[in-house]
Amino acid sequence: MASRDRTARVAVLGTSVQRSRNERRPPRGRNAQLRRLILVGLVLAALALLTISFRSPTSGALHDAQGYGASALRPFEVAAQRVARPFRDAYGYVSGLTGAKAENAKLRREIRELRAQATANEAAASRAAELSALLRFEQGRSYPKDFRPVNTTVISFPAGPFAQQVTIAAGTHQGLALNTPVVTADGLIGRVTNVGPTTAQVTLLNDPDSAVPSVDVTHHVVGLIRHGPRGTLIMDRVAKEQVIEKDDVVVTRGTVDKRYPDFYPYGVPIGKVQQVGRSDIATYLTVEVAPYARFDSLDAVAALVPTNRK
User: Fold this and answer.
1) Are 266 and 138 in contact (CB under 8 A)?
2) Are residues 247 and 274 in the same domain?
3) Residue 3 lies in a domain
4) What string of H, E and C letters represents the secondary structure of the chain?
5) Same domain, residue pair 180 and 290
6) Do residue 131 and residue 201 come from a single domain?
7) Is this model's pTM higher than 0.70 or not?
8) pLDDT tens-digit map of 218-238
9) Which pLDDT value is given to residue 139?
10) Which of 19, 63, 113, 235 is most deeply buried (CB count within 10 A of its CB)?
11) Distance CA 188, CA 250 (A)
């Protein structure tokens, strides 16, 4: 009898416990549906308020309520601004100080770089002076400051196409000597190769035996000016690695070392680069130079006599 009563009692207790759990936990589907309804209601209410705010007159009840709300919140806004102002000022000060420090560091770096560059330039100049002294470098005379012109005229012209010499009406009586440069108002035409008391023979630049040391003043390229085709001159001995371009100005190179003086002073205009050619089989560039002087219409010329013979 005791075991039967205990079994009935356990069955009753189990039934009661299971019923209480079902009563405390409502179905999950009902809670989710309730949350959706609340969300939809809030969205509809927000849309309704926005619609009323846009469509109602400026003096409507809703606008009045908004004005009252703004007036009520104004003291809090002012207080918030006053509280935030020191932080904004501190941020601006720190930001400006950081920017000033960065700018100062940049300027200091630029000053250091410029100082280093200036020092390097001074060292290079000093080294150049020492090397010039060691090599006995001498620029020599320069045109036109170290010369006086002896103005004269051409009295005879070339006898044939292969011998380009002219005779001028000035000689040793006027100070001319062998290798005296002769120019026109446009540029160099040649040098004196035979001189008498009152006349002199001038070999022109377009003579096949003429060779004039020259320099491209634009790119500092050196070469030899020789006779070229079609009334042009050739700047010879220009390596392929050199940079030389059309319209570069070419002048006489002048004396570089006093042990090897040049016939021509530095800076006498010769011509302008007309064309630059390259060839895979050639050692040098083919540089055509258009002379400034007109060799086919020579009339008035000037012989350059040094003002102080060295």
Assistant:
1) no
2) yes
3) no
4) CHHHHHHHHHHHHHHHHHHHHHHHCCCHHHHHHHHHHHHHHHHHHHHHHHHHHHHCCCCCHHHHHHHHHHHHHHHHHHHHHHHHHHHHHHHHHHHHHHHHHHHHHHHHHHHHHHHHHHHHHHHHHHHHHHHHHHHCECCCCECCCCEEEEEEEEEECCCECCECEEEECCCHHHCCCCCCEEECCCCEEEEEEEECCCCEEEEECCCCCCCEEEEECCCCEEEEEEECCCCCEEEECCECCCCCCCCCEEEECCCCECCCCCCCCECCEEEEEEEEECCCCCCECEEEEEECCCHHHCCEEEEEEECCCC
5) yes
6) no
7) no
8) 898 999 999 988 778 999 999
9) 55
10) 235
11) 11
The tokens describing 58, both together, are: 């400026």
DSSP β-bridge partners for residue 214: 223, 252
The predicted-structure confidence for 27-67, as pLDDT tens digits, reads as follows: 666 777 888 888 888 888 777 766 766 665 555 565 666 66
Q: Could you identify the residue written with the tokens 């109602």? A: 56
Note the pLDDT of residue 53.
63
Total residues belonging to the chain? 310
d(CA 225, CA 202): 16
Whole-angstrom distance, CA of residue 53 vs CA of residue 48: 9
Q: How many Cβ atoms are within 10 Å of 142's Cβ, its own excluded?
A: 15
Range(s) of the domain holding residue 122: 76-135
Closest CA to 210 of 248, 154, 165, 176: 165
Low-confidence ranges of the chain (pLDDT < 70): 1-29, 49-50, 52-74, 76-78, 115-116, 119-120, 122-140, 160-162, 309-310
- Report if residue 88 sits inside a domain: yes
Q: What is the per-residue burial (b if ≥16 Cβ within 10 Å, else e) of 197-215?
A: eebbbbbbbbbeebebbbb
